[in-house]
From TrEMBL:
This is Phage protein. Residues 232-257 are annotated as: Disordered. The lineage of its organism: Bacteria, Pseudomonadati, Pseudomonadota, Alphaproteobacteria, Sphingomonadales.
Amino acid sequence: MSGTNVIQASFNGGALSRRLQSRVDTQIYGTAVAELTNMIPTVEGPLIKRPGTRWRAEAPASASWLSPFVFNATQAYVLVWSDQLVHFMTNDAVLLDESDNPVEVEVPYSEIEATQVSQIQSNDVLRLAHENHPPAKLIRTGAATFTYAPLALKVEPFATPNSNEAVFVYADDVTGTVTLNAIGGDVWQAGHVGAQFRIEAEDFSDIEAWQPGIDGITIGTLRRSEGKVYRAETSGRTGNEQPLHTRGAEWDGSSGTDINSKGPYGVRWAYVHDRFGIVRITGFTSATEVTAEVVRRIPSSVTTTGSYRWSHGWMSDAAGWPHLVTIYRGRLCLFKANEFAGSVLGDYEDFSEYNEDAERSEDMGFRRLIDAPDRPLWCQVDGDALLIGTSRGEFSITPQNTSEIFSGGNMQIKPNSWHGSEAADTVQTATETIFIQRGGHKIRAARYAIEQDRRTARNLLLYARQMGRPKLTQLAYQAETEELLWALRSDGTVAVHSYNPDQDVKGWAMGLSIEGAAVRSICVIPSTDGSRDDLWLLVDRGGTISVEQLAEWWDEDAGLTPADSYHLDSGVSHVGAPVSSIGGLLHLAGETVAILADGAIQPPQVVANDGTVTISPAASKVHVGKLYTARMTTLSPDVPMRDGTSQGRRRRLNRLIARLIDSFRVFGGDKGGKLDELTDRPNSALMGSGPGLFSGTVTRSVGGGWNSDGQATLESRTPFPWILSAIIARIELGDQ
């Protein structure tokens, strides 16, 4: 029988999946553990107990989703989506109007649809897309005011033009309110009401072409020039300058007189229309008749000869609505099914395909098919590329010629990977796009690989597949103060990854497990002062929905005291003059809570029906909330042996040495056995005061039994921090 000390000085390998807990041959084994709950593996190596959550507001019973609205680093909002309503959180509180009522904005999305709304922000405008509703925008009109409205596009994208030359459309007028009639077949459905409709003149053969030097022009004469129609505003002979203007009136010669007082030479021509007319359908009479308002003057010939050259709007109740929206290379981009529409360059509310000369140009809007197996489920701008994910693979959309404008004619779609994606929002880090793989059990990080000239997507859950069960539903990323990738699971817990790809950190943990509650949605926005990123949570506690915020991370170098500790869930705080009671706990009425008052633990209490607890003695800094357990369990130590591995030998854990930073009441022992307190009250702590936090090395004998694992469990259930920088286990080994 022999004994040995086994040290683990880093834990950033995180919690390994059970498939890997016997893989002592892997490099990650020496920095990994078997279990991490409410403990986070840091990039540097130590484990840190996650902070508690602060209760911020009650949410509507139908609240289902949180999303960020970040105007700048110090003006950010959490959008709380519920059934046909949006509420707002900012400055760590509910956004109120001038009458101190919560600001709310009506939207058309149900509580289920709210979880599927595609969003892209530009300055004060958040543009929205959902396949059941017209694309829209949520506008910040002031620090405490928001409005919602469907996108009022000047010109919408249009579908493929009609190709049946037997189906003609006629208009009874060219401006104002008009009636459109179809001959030769059905054209409209009730779902086309509200959509635009484009009509192109079949030809201008009934209008003479403009020519220079022609006499006999009278006021009102019509002439065509380069696909445009003009009306004479003066009489006389035409000049030598062909009319090409697209608004107002211009002379085709000199408008003045010469030295002999003769002139003018030419005719003044007023622009009338080109070959395209656009209307917005306002009423449905039948499949062959609708009423409409003219958006762009209808060519006159449509009132007499009609035209088979017409196009429906690309989006409507009849044609369907875009399901994704983003902004890429100066264009608003909409995705509907497997089609892609880009706006006019620099104008997010105009999708005109033709310029003022009725010609296509590279800066105009466009629509084209996406060469991918199925429709995009997400889109994300990453550097110079627009990435899309489908259920079968991930693709990059880029200009084919990077020196020219990105357009429908200068666009290529290249496959990156064939993992397949889930319909869940991505997150963007400094160097990678993070997405959930099809099935909802894996998370992948896409990064450009220069040697392959594409973006490859590594599996972030390769060593921790258990974190993807039962299913992943939402991602969020904190860059400050800790670099953390959060992954919400369908069971209401939140996994967390210490994200630092440059250091090849792989560690995952069950970072947020709130006792008696489930997390329904997460998002990250900058803190009020912009110095850090805050994780916000939508929490369901027995049917009571609330918005909560992960508290500040403990900073052992910031000179904090025990009174500054906040490791309680769903809690509230008071900082100010001493108080003998504290309220605001209606969400925990009837439940037992812990109380930390001026750094000292007071006896637990049951919250009264009015949401209050008593503070005795009175205190000026008070935190009240639910305790939670932070726990870690080591892997089975691999002890070097002369005759090979120690795996399979009987073993017993009989001593633990832990190196701690700013910790209080940490218990440890044999996995599954009795846990003994490892920490003592520091000698420097004054009697009658709050407990001191321990930093240093502690050694305790533990009563472990003989087994085949020799694993240790450490845990803490207090309102105070716990940082574990190393653990040394004394293991006795027996026979095979």
